Amino acid sequence: LTNVWDGASQFIRKNLQHGRGVKIKDLGTFTFSEWTTNIGSKTIENKQPTFLMSEKLVKFYNLKTRVLYTTGKTPVVALNFATIAASMVTCRQMVEDCVTEITEAFLRLLSHNEDVEIPFSNIGHFQIKNKHVIMNFKPNFLKNDKTLQTSETKMADEFKGDDPLYTSSPVVEEETVQCDPCEPQLV
C-alpha cells in the first residue's frame, strides 16, 4: 500500500514539474495558484503549487479552506493508474484498489470527525485538523522552476522504478506476470 502511494506521489510530482495538475478522484486536485504583483512599472507573475480539496467534501463535512486563486489555465490530468503500475512493475488494478482504499479510509476518518494526515512523498503532507484543510508542501518542492528542473532527472529515474523503494515486487525472469482483478494480489 505504501509503495503504491509513493508511486502515486511520484506521478503527481512529475506532472506538477511539467506544469500539469493532477486530480485524485473523490479527494481533490493538485494544481497551481497563480497571481500577478505590480511593483512600479514591473509586473511579476507568481505561481506556486496548491491542493484544492473536492468542493463536495468541503461542503459535506463542513470543512474550512483558504481562498486559493487559480486561473483554470493549468491543464489537469487524472491520476493515471496504468502509468503508476508500469513504473512499479505491478498491475493497474492493484494500484487502483490501493488508491481507492486510501481514499476510503480517509473518508471514514472524516466521517468520525477525526484529524487526518496523508503524506505525499517528496511533495508534502495534506492534513485536516480541527476541520481546517491544510496542504504543507516541502520547502525543497516549493523552490523555483530552475531548481525543480535540475532535480527532474533524478526524480525521473525514481519514477521509472530504478530505486528499490518504488518497486513493490521482485523481478521475475522469463515469466509474464498478469493481473486478474478477481484473484487476490500480494502487496
TrEMBL record:
<feature type="domain" description="CCDC81 HU">
    <location>
        <begin position="1"/>
        <end position="64"/>
    </location>
</feature>
<dbReference type="GO" id="GO:0005815">
    <property type="term" value="C:microtubule organizing center"/>
</dbReference>
<dbReference type="InterPro" id="IPR040673">
    <property type="entry name" value="CCDC81_HU_dom_2"/>
</dbReference>
<dbReference type="InterPro" id="IPR028034">
    <property type="entry name" value="HU-CCDC81"/>
</dbReference>
<dbReference type="Pfam" id="PF18289">
    <property type="entry name" value="HU-CCDC81_euk_2"/>
</dbReference>
<protein>
    <submittedName>
        <fullName>Uncharacterized protein</fullName>
    </submittedName>
</protein>
<dbReference type="Pfam" id="PF14908">
    <property type="entry name" value="HU-CCDC81_euk_1"/>
</dbReference>
<feature type="domain" description="CCDC81 HU">
    <location>
        <begin position="75"/>
        <end position="144"/>
    </location>
</feature>
<dbReference type="InterPro" id="IPR026295">
    <property type="entry name" value="CCD81"/>
</dbReference>
